[in-house]
Amino acid sequence: MKVSFYESVAKHDLKFAVIISRYLKQWVFCKHKQRKTFEIPGGHRENGESIEACARRELYEETGAVTYTLERLCDYGVVEKTGSKESFGTIFYAEIEKMADLPDSEIEKIFLSKELPECWTYPEIQPYMIDEYKRRRGS
């Protein structure tokens, strides 16, 4: 698996939004009901939806965030295996100020931590996104 980061990808190629999030000075991760691992909030863009609208929808659906600032960080591409087509998305950063209860969805709970999780759902992708966030933000 190969992850690449880009300043910009054609808007029509962006299929996913990933939202690196912080709340009360802690990282925010989600636990899917059918998994034992943790992941960064995010998901697929729906037809006719902008990538930012996708990020806002997914952030609410997966964390319950209702008040936050959202900033585009960069675009990314993932090639799952040699010779496969690259899939693209956008990484956002959200500083969450207020959360409501989780809406009814595939997410069982959120996990707040000062440290990154050891059990990632996507260990070959999401830790690299956090590294890119840190590199770009200087943190």
Explain what you see:
The structure is a single chain. Helices cover 18% and strands 43% of the residues. With 139 residues, it is an alpha+beta fold. The chain has a single domain (2-137), classed as Nucleoside Triphosphate Pyrophosphohydrolase (Alpha-Beta Complex). Strands 1, 2, 3, 4, 5, 6 and 7 form a seven-stranded mixed sheet that branches. The model has no long low-confidence stretch (mean pLDDT 95).
Question: How would the blueprint of this fold be written?
Answer:
Layout: E1 2-6, E2 14-23, E3 26-32, E4 42-44, H1 51-63, E5 65-79, E6 87-99, E7 107-113, H2 126-137
Parallel strand pairs: 2-6
Antiparallel strand pairs: 1-5, 2-3, 2-4, 3-7, 5-6
Family: Belongs to the Nudix hydrolase family.
Keywords: Hydrolase
Protein name: Nucleoside triphosphatase YtkD
